[in-house]
Amino acid sequence: MSGTLTIVVVEEDRDRAVAIVDALMDSGDHEVHVIADPSGLARKIAAHAPDIVLIDIDHPTRDMMEELTLASGPLDRPVAMFVSGAAGGLAQAAIESGVSAYVVDGLAPDRLKPVIDTAIARFRMFRQMRTELAETRRALEERKVIDRAKGLLMKAKGIDEDAAYALLRKTAMDQGRRVAEVAEALVTASGLLS
């Protein structure tokens, strides 16, 4: 683990919580907060604005896992979940919901550093992929709108595709707007934007 991290540990067992906190403090000068009662977990986690959340549960049920996962905000920060035994099919559900690391056989203090490093790296990779996917989707939607606007201009003015795009581009430059914004305004005005 590099640098100081703010870490929230969700652990109901006091002795295990103390062992986890000790191990975390041995691995660096971290700000560690333990949440023993999972009720109101989302609010409690948000209050600490952690860099990572570590959840240690003995025998998770699907409902408990979903609640803990949603409350820990796996799209906002890395979440590492530690379970005591194989919980058939729950690993898949946890990973699909955004948990960055799912570790079977519980939270062992000597495994904390590599698990945290892996969870953070995986979270960053998936956040980058989500960002790129959102940008790609936005670009595709803009392209569709621009194509609709070109079609409208071609039909209304009796011009070809290149001339229609040139007109959109010129209008955008004249108005200090993006081509996609001008195209969206044209398509919206024509009632074709769904």
Task: List SSEs in N-to-C order.
Answer: EHEHEHEHEHHH
Q: What portion of residues is helical?
A: 55-70%
Determine the mean pLDDT: 85
Strand runs, count: 5
Largest sheet composition: 5 strands, parallel
Structural class: alpha/beta
Radius of gyration (Å): 25 Å
Notable characteristics:
194 residues, 5 strands, alpha/beta, 5-stranded parallel beta sheet
Give a written overview of the molecule.
This protein is an alpha/beta fold and 194 residues long. Helix content is 58%, strand content 13%. The protein contains 7 helices and 5 strands; from the N terminus they run E-H-E-H-E-H-E-H-E-H-H-H. The protein has helices at residues 14-26, 41-48, 62-72, 90-96, 112-157, 161-175, 179-190, and strands spanning 6-10, 31-35, 52-57, 79-83, 101-104. The chain has a 5-stranded parallel sheet with strand order 2-1-3-4-5, with helices on both faces. Helix 4 links the parallel strand 4 (79-83) and strand 5. Helix 5 packs across helix 7 (179-190). It is elongated and about 80 Å long. It starts with 5 loop residues before the first strand and ends with a helix.
Strands, helices and their partners?
Elements: E1 6-10, H1 14-26, E2 31-35, H2 41-48, E3 52-57, H3 62-72, E4 79-83, H4 90-96, E5 101-104, H5 112-157, H6 161-175, H7 179-190
Parallel strand pairs: 1-2, 1-3, 3-4, 4-5
Helix pairs in contact: 2-3, 5-6, 5-7, 6-7
